[in-house]
Amino acid sequence: MNEQNPIPPVIPQTGTAPMPGEWRKPGDDASDRVPITHGFAALEALLRQPSRLFYQLRQPGAGGIVVQMLLIALGCSVIYGVVAGTFSGGPQLWAAPVKIAGGLMISAAICLPSLYIFTCLSGSRARLIEVCGLLAGLLMLMTILLIGFAPVAWIFSQSTESVVWMGILHFVFWFVATLFGVRFLKQGFSHTDAKSQAGVNVWIIIFLLVAVQMTTALRPILGKSDTFLPTKKEFFLEHWDDCLKEVGSKPAANPSN
């Protein structure tokens, strides 16, 4: 400080809290370090404070959190399956929940090894349990959003008899829910010191393809059938094309009926 410059120099401070908008790691905020003791706390953290969930997945005992997250995702998918089953009623009231919940969990189990491999190839330091936690968070967020869409799906299921249009509606709901789930996964992946997002981007495509093919392998989920599982093997694009052709071949309904 001198006569020309009476303002003293600014001394940098250490240990200060991150400013708003500044990149912060899970655990920088004291609230991130509050333990998650049950599934509903994990759900609240997922919706309100994902960084808390990311931090807790790195701590000892993370396996219990992952199990509870999977149980919530399983329960929500069963509830949504019951709503989907009300379109046809009868056996679909139990078959649709089994197929939706089972298909989702099987798809996740099939894709877990490739997710862990891509995580390692990306230079990430995430442990297997942390990768499982991110995948469980994706499933839980997906199914919670589907529960939010369930009343809308039920209204339409009572208003139309078109399996194709109901299938399109459920696909739109599933796709929107998956987008939010994938965003959570990528957000968590960015905190694992990965050098590249290329691996997780490739995995997302694989997961989408597996999940969509699973709906075809477990058909019908909405319509009625004499068998629990289909007797014919089809690729999902082929199945969709057959459904559209079937709709196009039906005569137009008489408005007076």
Task: Reconstruct the topology from this structure.
Layout: H1 39-48, H2 50-56, H3 62-85, H4 92-121, H5 128-157, H6 163-189, H7 198-217, H8 236-249
Give the N-to-C terminal Cα separation. 92 Å
Count of extended strands: 0
> How many alpha or pi helices?
8
Judging from the principal axes of the Cα atoms, what is the shape?
Answer: globular
Percent helix: 55-70%
Structure in words:
With 257 residues, this protein is mainly alpha-helical. 63% of the residues lie in helices and 0% in strands. The chain is built from 8 helices and no strands. The longest helix has 30 residues, at 92-121. It is globular and about 60 Å long. Mean pLDDT is 85; it is low at 10-22 and 252-257.
A few lines on this structure:
The protein is built from eight helices and no strands. It is mainly alpha-helical. α1 packs across α2.
Keywords:
single chain; disordered C terminus; mainly alpha; 257 residues; 63% helix; 8 helices
